[in-house]
Structure formats: structure tokens, C-alpha cells
Amino acid sequence: MIKTVNLQKIFKTEEVETWALNNVNLEIKAGEFVAIMGPSGCGKSTLLNILGLLDNPTGGTYELNGTDVSKFTEAQRTNLRKGVIGFVFQSFNLIDELNVFENIELPLLYMGIPATERKRRVEDAMNRMAIAHRVKHFPQQLSGGQQQRVAIARAVVANPKLILADEPTGNLDSKNGKEVMELLTELNKEGTTIVMVTHSQHDSGYAGRTINLFDGQVVNEIKI
Length: 224
Ligand code: ADP
Prior knowledge:
Blueprint: E1 2-13, E2 16-28, E3 33-37, H1 44-51, E4 59-64, E5 67-68, H2 74-81, E6 85-89, H3 100-110, H4 115-128, H5 144-156, E7 162-166, H6 174-189, E8 193-197, H7 201-204, E9 209-214, E10 217-223
Parallel strand pairs: 3-8, 3-9, 6-7, 7-8
Antiparallel strand pairs: 1-2, 1-4, 4-5, 9-10
Helix pairs in contact: 3-4, 3-5, 4-5, 5-6
Bound molecules: adenosine-5'-diphosphate.
């Protein structure tokens, strides 16, 4: 599903060059649950952004389902992401002005799914994430755990094959964090490929494999 060859990302700001990724070679098969770990600043988020087609590498190739997407334009990347990749972020990234239903519905709106089908899918996702009783609530009226469940519902509503999660439990207490990890594990058991950035040894224990990054390079891989 995912293959990178000598992936590089260099950020240039005036006279400063940062090599965020330096020849990253990765292969992640469909159905895997992979944790990416490493110290702060080692390139984890940069890697996840490129894998999620939010950004392009500056060198090397990235093949997603057999297509080299490393030189895709932003419009091509946006188009390919729809319905294929779901995101879960540490900060939940919900839209404050939209209620639970409307937040979860967003990806389906972008995909042009008709209203009755949207309603069916949003209700299904809300039930799965045990958030249906908060359908009319706005993000500020929800606990952190509830907000992350809404964010996961939004990530899964389009039935994506790949979920990318960046520190999904980073803002949660241990009980809510455990719930979120159990939900991700359940989705993985149903066949969704999951790539998760985490600092937590506990969370990485849910993954089948850990890839360790250091200074923009893969230093080792551990099968769990
Ligand atoms: P991590 O997620 O492991 O903490 P990041 O991927 O956020 O690491 O960052 C890797 C390196 O790239 C860091 O040195 C960071 O300062 C730098 N970096 C990340 N994003 C940018 C950017 N937009 N512009 C310049 N430098 C960046």
C-alpha cells in the first residue's frame, strides 16, 4: 500500500536548511497497524503529512497503491485523498461552529455524496463511536474523549482504506486514551491500514510493528 524510496524533505527558510527526512525507505502493507516513534523533531509529523498527501517530498519517491504520487500537484493530492485517507490528530481539529453531525458529515460533503446517504453514513459512524447522544452538541460542549471520538467518526465516515493518526491520545487521560486505541485496533481488525505517530510506548503496544526515526532516518524496526 505504502512504499517510499529515499524519501527526503528539506525545509528551506532564508539561509537555514532543515533536513527533516533523509532517505526514508519504508514499506507498509495493506492491513498493517504501524507505529512511528522517535524523539521530538526527528521528522515524524513531516513523514505522516507526506504519507497523507498533505505535502510533497523534496526528493525520493512515494508510491501509494502502486502510483508514484511524489510529484502530484496539490489539486491531485486533494482529489486522491478523498475517501481513501482519514486523519486523526492530537488536537482533534474539529470545527467549532459545526455540531457533531456536521463535523462528521464534512468528508462526505466534499465527496458530493447525496443527503440521504450522508445521513445514513454519519448516523452509522456516530453509533460506532458511541457519540450519537451528542449529535447536536458543538465541540466546546464535549469532553476531550468525546471530541476525539467525533474526530475518529469523521475519519472513518468515508470508509477510508488508510487512517493516519498523529499522537491520537496526546491530549487525553489514560481512560479516554485507551478507548481511542481500542477503537483504532477494532478498525484495523476490520481491514483498515493504520499508521500512527506516537510518543507513548503504551500506545505503540497496540501496533503490529514500530518504526523508529532519528534525525530524519529510520534507525530500526521492531515487530511487536
Ligand atoms: P516530529 O514530528 O518528529 O517532532 P517534525 O516532522 O515536526 O518532527 O519536524 C522535523 C524537523 O523539521 C524539525 O527540525 C522541524 O523544526 C522541521 N520542520 C518541520 N516543519 C517545518 C516547516 N514547515 N518549516 C521549517 N522547518 C520545519
